[in-house]
Write the structure tokens for this entry.
Amino acid sequence: MAKFYSISVVHGYAFILYLEQKNKSITVLDSEEIEYEELAAYCKNKKNLHVSVEQKVEFSENMQVPVAIASSRNVKNYLFYKIKESNPNMDVLFNFKKLPKQNDEENVTYTIEALDEKAYLEALNFVDDFSKIKSATTSKFSLLSLANKCIDAEYYICVYTQATTVLVLAVEQRELIFSRATTIESQTPETMQMDIAENITQTISYISNQFRDIKFQTLVLSGSIALDDVIAQHIAMFNTLNISILYPNTFIQNINAEESQEHILSLGSALVEKSNQFLPKLILGVKQFNIVVAVGIILSSIILVFMLYLTFNAYENYSDLTQKNQLLKQRYLYALSHTKMRPKEELKKYEYNIYMTKTYLKESPIDKIIELKPLITLVKPSKFEYKNEKGVISLKVSFEKKFGELVNLYKFEKEFDSRFNAIKEKLKITKKTTVDYKQLLYTTEITTTKMKLANQRQRARRQ
Amino acid sequence: MMKITLIAINIALAIFLYFLNTWYEQEDIQIQKINKKYVTNTRKLKEIEKIDKWLSAKVKQNLTIIPKDSQNADLKLIAFFDTYAKKYTFQVEKFIYNDERAHFLNIKYSLPRENYKYLVQFMQQKYKGGYKILQNFAVDKATLQGELILVQPYLTAKKKKEAIVDDVPK
């Protein structure tokens, strides 16, 4: 699961927790306390940083915005304009929230939490790459986030001390209505405790006076004050509020009570809500840039993979075609080397010869004799006439045979007819037969006519 | 910076691959054209080879030597007539005439039927340098008679100039 660093910078020291979040519980994997100067080196190779820093120039104010200005962006611009009016030389970074109770019909009251952006960025300078910052806020909002998580009361005052730093928050329905951060400068170390107690008591009195209509139920102590009975007793003497200790061990594991008080702000940094974070445009820009870069890497990688796929397919096709080309080339070269090329003059001679053969040797009486072979082998023709008159070929063949017995005549007649029928379709011949049964004489005449000349004329027209 | 470089490399590679892909596609079209040409030409060569074999087997042996001039063509026809006039009882039916491709001489012939070898000899008689066409052929009980045409190939000057190769049978 997600592991991250939670860092709070208080009075020149950095309190670091290495945490792991599993579902809703947080486990402390490691804790460290280092000097601020060492923090930059420490953070160099660390990622996922949740940071809270102290801010000297930090103020909250209630501002009224006309009802007509409705959209969040316009409200923000209006508030920014108003803040800049009163702080013209400061780059302001601010969050704003609409107050739950509204008394004016014409205006809407917003509470703004503002700080000097330049000073804030300087305080965050220990981070070499702002894209590593997951959340950033000031100390008071870290404390508020943790207190809201631990305290059920609707109205309470929360006090945090660390060395000479005192931070007091007044909370109404989980919203911060007052905060004061003070650095106690005592004359001697012995009077430090009393000075802190006095400062806290005075601040509580101030809050009670300022917010008379709010009945604070609890005074929550955290940080070093939670471990110091003397100050706690002193404060209790001057207040009627129920005193309780901020005790996050219930949902944060692997940290004891003492350690948890040292790292109160670090724990709060890990829990700070988005509305209480201060992320300057620079950090947001870096984050957005990183998102764009990540999207760019993914998209360019997808495009690259897609192009690789297309190119691989194209290469495969190209490779197949090249192989086919080589094969076809070899076949062509083989056919070329095995084909005799004759000169045009020689081909003309061949052509002339073919023409002459086609023209003059197409029809020959020998061909007809061969075609009539089945009949000629049965009986010799008594007469054979072949005429080729201007392309019209006519053939007349006479057969005559005398028999001693009728049975032989009968058998011959059947055989002749049989052989004649086998070739008559092909040769387009007709026969005229006369049988003299008194003389036992068989006489037949076969004729054929082929209109060759007409065919030649048709071919001439086509050419 | 590394990430931007990676994007730049990815995009550069993608562009390179796009052009490579386009190049492959263009090459494919070219190769396909060449392959088609190879197939067509190979088929043509095979047809030529087939025709050449046919020419060598069927036509080459019948190629005739065409006389140098018209007179030589006529004299060859006359020489054949004179050589076999007595043997086959030749008579001039139509004296020498010509078209664009040949000179012709029509001859009447007559020979007895009883000598079979003699008949076969006549039928197989060749006219060297030309063609002997049996125009009419009639056999009765005693004789074989008819008409033959001697064809002496000889091209006219106009015909000699023409290159005709389209008529080669496929």
Observations:
- The domain at 1-135 of chain A is CATH 3.30.420.380 (Nucleotidyltransferase; domain 5).
- The first helix of chain A runs from residue 36 to 43.
- Chain A touches chain B through 57 residues (CB under 8 Å).
